[in-house]
UniProtKB/TrEMBL annotation:
Keywords: Acyltransferase, Transferase. Residues 165-327 form the N-acetyltransferase domain. InterPro entries: Acyl_CoA_acyltransferase, GNAT_dom. Its EC number is 2.3.1.-. It comes from the Bacteria. One of its GO terms (molecular function) is acyltransferase activity. This is GNAT family N-acetyltransferase. CDD domains: NAT_SF. Pfam families: Acetyltransf_7.
Length: 327
């Protein structure tokens, strides 16, 4: 929801909607809180268009939130990591911390009861600064799981480790090997995070990779004895004031890692590390302001690998599937 439309959304709550003045004050306080929590956060974003919910604390303080509904369908890249119907709560709780977050999550729970979507392919979610540990407790108490983090890293070059594999941009002739590596990542991640092994997974991954092979230098492979055994799928992302990423990252040019995958039998031998050394130095050549990616905290490989590579959580996506599982 943009600033001028902050209150121009239909209300849905037990209380009348907070006035525009209250919402503006809450957003300003939230911005101050975010800045105190983590200096890498961009200014707290206004909620997107959706349905407003609101709540009051015992001392009368008013807090609010917007619920958005995103529908994902076969063929969309997000079909492989999102529920078909995602209800996202975007809180506007100012500086009220755990008490305010608990109040809007209760209101969200009532909202979900009213909507009564009992579908199995649904999710309820909140994306919130990872370092707000006071609120982390509240998310856990409401049955939400820290399924995905957006992690960031400084834009420094790295001293390349000695290479045991040949690392090069992927060619059109690598398509089958690249798709197999992308699918190895989907299969692994489906056990330990948000990814879903949908029937359309291979077709979807092939469609998003095939046209880029040999055309760009953002898909890299690691090759040993003529066999492709590692993949890094990356991008240079222009985070402009209208880009969707502006909600999570400071404005600027960012290096992004969408997928890193090493064949199961070749893991733990330094291939991921070598791929990332090449990718990080490639990002640095573009004068990026930082690098970012998403990983799943329950993934026992990536949750160790990425912090060792210099990444740390900025935002956590708290989620429960199906949505009815929220407490
Ligand atoms: C995550 C993943 C890409 C990492 O790739 P990898 O090649 O296994 O990673 P590396 O071997 O470079 O690094 C793992 C560890 O092995 C160590 N290692 C390096 N050389 C080694 C060697 N010769 N023998 C054994 N271990 C070695 C690395 O130093 C590193 O340990 P460290 O962090 O303590 O330094 C890989 O495990 C994978 O494909 N996982 C499944 C899919 C996945 O989770 N992808 C990420 C989604 S976000």
């Amino acid at each position: 929801m943009e600033p001028t439309a902050r209150t121009a959304v239909p209300g849905h709550g037990d209380l009348p909607l907070p006035t525009p003045v209250t919402i503006d004050a809450l957003l300003t306080a939230q911005e101050e809180r975010f800045a105190r929590l983590d200096r890498l956060l961009p200014p707290a974003p206004s909620p997107e268009p959706g349905e407003a919910v609101n709540a009051a604390l015992p001392d009368g303080t008013r807090v609010a939130a917007v619920v958005t509904h995103q529908r994902t369908e076969p063929g969309m890249p997000s079909w492989l990591w999102s529920a078909a119907d995602t209800y996202e709560l975007q809180p506007v709780v100012g500086h009220t911390g755990a008490a305010g977050m608990d109040a809007v999550l209760r209101a969200f729970r009532h909202w979900l009861d009213r909507v009564n979507d009992r579908g199995p392919d649904t999710a309820a979610t909140v994306i919130w600064p990872s370092r707000d540990v006071e609120c982390a407790r509240v998310f856990l108490d409401h049955g939400l799981q820290p399924l995905t983090v957006t992690a960031v890293r400084k834009p420094t070059t790295v001293r390349a480790p000695s290479l045991t594999v040949n690392i090069r941009p992927a060619l059109a002739s690598d398509e089958d090997a690249v798709v197999e590596l992308a699918m190895a990542e989907v299969r692994y991640s489906a056990n330990v995070g948000a990814a879903l092994l949908r029937a359309e997974a291979e077709r979807t991954r092939r469609a998003s990779l095939a046209g880029r092979l040999g055309m760009t230098d953002d898909v890299w492979v690691a090759e040993r004895d003529g066999m492709v055994i590692g993949l890094a799928e990356t991008a240079i992302v222009a985070n402009t004031p209208t880009a969707r990423t502006r909600r999570q990252l400071p404005i600027g040019l960012w290096g992004y890692v969408n997928c890193l995958s090493v064949l199961p039998g070749a893991r733990g031998a330094g291939i991921g590390q070598q791929l990332m050394a090449v990718v990080h130095n490639h990002f640095a050549g573009h004068r990026t302001s930082g690098y970012f990616l998403h990983y799943n905290p329950p993934n026992p490989l990536s949750s160790v690998f990425w912090p060792r590579q210099g990444y740390r959580p900025l935002w956590t996506q708290w989620e429960v599937r199906p949505a009815g599982g929220m407490r």
